[in-house]
Amino acid sequence: MIERNPKRRDILILDDDADLDVELIQMLRANGLLANAETDATQIRPDDFDNVDVLVLDLKLPNVDGTDILALLPDCSRPPALILTTGQGEGMLRAASMAAERAGLTVLGALPKPFDPDALLALLNAENRAPLARPENALSDDDIRAALVTALDRRSLPVAFQPLVDAAALRFEGAEALLAGHLDPFGPIGPDRIVAVAAGDVALLVRLTHDVLRQAASACAAWTAAGFSGDVSVNLPLDVLLQPAEVDRFAAIVDAAGIARGRVIFELTEDALYDTSAAALGALIKLRLAGFALALDDVGQRQSGLLQLANLPVTEMKIDLELVRAARTWEKARNIFSSLGDLGHRLGLTIVAEGVETKEDLALARRNKVHYVQGYLISRKKPLRELIAMLPVLASNLTDGSKSQRETGREA
């Protein structure tokens, strides 16, 4: 995606409704924004968007299809961010938004017509939007591999923790261990890139997983010693789990940290969703028999992931953050979210919603009786010391000492 001007000051409205254009321009200018409108898009060229920060685009224009305008934008020297509108229904808006995002464009939101002008202003002024993607660090895989090996050798791999809280009481219930997203001496490098490089060498991926698990178990012991209960989650690539005697190694790492194995929740990464071989199922069963908990991550992202709820010995389902974000705008996404929550309850699973970034997201989770939430509304991922320092604030929301859903589910 193209990084946008954070002030988003220059706005162009492409809409053939002249009365609406006048109303929107007056409202936007009254709020300190620079706004103009164009009712005839037939002569629009890519360089017409050079000084535009945000394009408000009606998908149905006279003589011009909204997709024709979208097709022009990747050729712009600086494509504007998009707010899409139409009176053709939610499905049309959703499809157009996906097409724009897959073309590398930034979509700030979508508004079905008729809409309140204040809804447009809210999209322009939204504060809790996730950060836009940054360009990949121009490093070779060999550079990253060497830096990763050095960090593992020195036990200096930076791992951060994103807290997870009870959806109703906002009580701390644990954290997910995540790569912090930087490597010495190069600085910021996306966690996905680091994992992708490690995945090219199973032995390195095993070392990476062991180190994250070691730090995760130690962190869980640390916040327990500080007086806070809560489990720790660790992503688990199936290629690692399938190595000989791997569950025994996991057990040794966790036992050395002095915490119960049931306080470690392994989250199955995408590769595990599609492998129903005897070896894969046997390894997952062994993991559960050893006392570890097992979560299915990114539920709702793909149908196959949902179907695996019936096949894998999971104790927890994590609703994908993209579904949470889509539910802010799309009724269909909200209905899917609700259905997943209901299904999780029927299956006796702990339900976690990822990507909770706004109060509305939290309200959605609470309406659908989600047990736990994590996301920017609660906290971004933090180094362990910073996480423990913030726990007294979360602890002020403690209700009673009853067992958590996770504990109850494991004993069942």
Looking at CATH, the homologous superfamily of the largest domain is: EAL domain
Side-by-side strand order of the widest sheet:
8-9-12-13-14-15-16-17
Regions with little confidence, pLDDT below 50 for 5+ residues: 1-8, 127-137, 397-405, 408-412
Radius of gyration: 24 Å
**Main structural class:** alpha/beta
Shape: elongated
In the CATH hierarchy, the third-tier topology of the largest domain is known as TIM Barrel
How many β-strand runs? 17
Quickly name the level 1 CATH class of the largest domain.
Alpha Beta
Overall pLDDT, averaged? 82
Distance between the first and last residues' Cα? 46 Å
Describe the structure.
This protein is of the alpha/beta class and 412 residues long. It has two domains: 116 residues, Rossmann fold (3-Layer(aba) Sandwich), CATH 3.40.50.2300; 271 residues, TIM Barrel (Alpha-Beta Barrel). The protein is 42% helix and 19% strand. The protein has 16 helices and 17 strands. The strands form four sheets. It has an eight-stranded mixed β-barrel, surrounded by six helices. Strand 13, helix 10 and strand 14 form a beta-alpha-beta unit. Helix 7 packs parallel to helix 9 and helix 12 packs across helix 13. The chain is elongated and about 70 Å long. The N terminus and C terminus are likely disordered.
Give the helices and strands, then pairings.
Layout: E1 10-14, H1 18-30, E2 34-38, E3 54-58, E4 60-61, E5 64-65, H2 66-72, E6 81-86, H3 90-102, E7 107-112, H4 117-125, H5 141-154, E8 159-166, E9 172-179, E10 182-183, E11 187-188, H6 191-199, H7 202-225, E12 231-236, H8 238-241, H9 246-257, E13 264-268, H10 278-289, E14 293-299, H11 303-307, E15 316-319, H12 321-327, H13 331-346, E16 350-353, H14 359-367, E17 372-373, H15 384-395, H16 405-411
Parallel strand pairs: 1-2, 1-3, 3-6, 6-7, 9-12, 12-13, 13-14, 14-15, 15-16, 16-17
Antiparallel strand pairs: 4-5, 8-9, 8-17, 10-11
Helix pairs in contact: 1-4, 7-9, 12-13
